[in-house]
Amino acid sequence: DGGITQSPKYLFRKEGQNVTLSCEQNLNHDAMYWYRQDPGQGLRLIYYSQIVNDFQKGDIAEGYSVSREKKESFPLTVTSAQKNPTAFYLCASSIGTGDYNEQFFGPGTRLTVL
Amino acid sequence: QKEVEQNSGPLSVPEGAIASLNCTYSDRVSQSFFWYRQYSGKSPELIMSIYSNGDKEDGRFTAQLNKASQYVSLLIRDSQPSDSATYLCAAPSGYSTLTFGKGTMLLVSP
């Protein structure tokens, strides 16, 4: 089955800890994205990557870091510098660009700060 | 900065009725739009892409794009309780990113 997987489904973090969210895709898509969704809010772009070993900051990159060492994988690290990390984190991928940028989402990771 | 606006709702319709969801956008350059459905607690699912002016039909769903008015809509015919979800509209905001609206909640009552 082709698709996007995210793990874990639920994650609990203590204050001061860094945590890493996993995102893997076997769709052979070049571009991958990380979004954050808060209750009643739209999707906000954290980071995106169009090719391996390259990524760009989105609208709310502060307190987050990413890597893109393989085409299939785009992990997101939520650092202790992120002051309000409790949210639903969504990973997406796409094969098109510009007007043909259909993005497909993974199931998400719900992060809670204890 | 491109903006995509949606009424937050909830939009309530009875089962079997037509649900009409609307989205306006600020950028006249946008050539395509995407509609996503998001069930509570789940991730968004792409249900419709529209690339040109006019209507696009897929089963019970019809997307309508009016570039002159900067307006795109999604019609759901014969609405079912299983259609109850939040519907997100998205438009390209550059070479490789999308801007999403905050979504409209649809409630279909039996």
How would you characterize the overall build of this protein?
- The complex is a heterodimer of chains A (114) and B (110).
- Chain A has 114 residues and is mainly beta.
- Chain A is 0% helix and 49% strand.
- In chain A, strands 2, 4, 5, 6, 9, 10 and 11 form a 7-stranded mixed β-sheet that branches. A 4-stranded antiparallel β-sheet of chain A has the order 1-3-8-7, with no helix packed on it.
- Chain A is globular and about 40 Å long.
- Chain A starts with a strand and ends with a strand.
- Chain B has 110 residues and is mostly beta strands.
- Helix content of chain B is 0%, strand content 54%.
- In chain B, strands 2, 4, 5, 9, 10 and 11 form a 6-stranded mixed β-sheet that branches.
- In chain B, strand 7 and strand 8 form a beta hairpin.
- The radius of gyration of chain B is 13 Å and the shape is globular.
- Chain B starts with a strand and ends with a strand.
- Chains A and B meet through strand 5 and strand 10 of A and strand 5 and strand 9 of B.
Structural class of chain B comes to: mainly beta
Number of separate helices of chain B? 0
Average pLDDT metric of chain B: 92
Mean pLDDT of chain A: 94
Beta content of chain A: over 45%
Poorly predicted runs of chain A are none
Distance N to C terminus of chain B = 41 Å
Query: If interface size is counted as residues with C-beta under 8 Å from the partner's C-beta, which chains form the largest one?
Result: A-B, 24 and 23 residues
Shape of chain A: globular
Total count of strands of chain B: 11
Terminal CA distance of chain A reads 35 Å
For this entry, what is the oligomeric state of its chains?
Answer: heterodimer
> Helix and strand string of chain A, N-terminal first?
EEEEEEEEEEE
Q: What percent of the residues of chain B sit in helical stretches (DSSP H or I)?
A: under 10%
Q: Which secondary-structure class do the elements of chain A indicate?
A: mainly beta
The gross shape of chain B turns out to be globular
How much β-strand is present in the residues of chain B? over 45%
- Main sheet attributes: strand count, strand direction, barrel closure of chain A: 7 strands, mixed
Tally of helical segments of chain A:
0
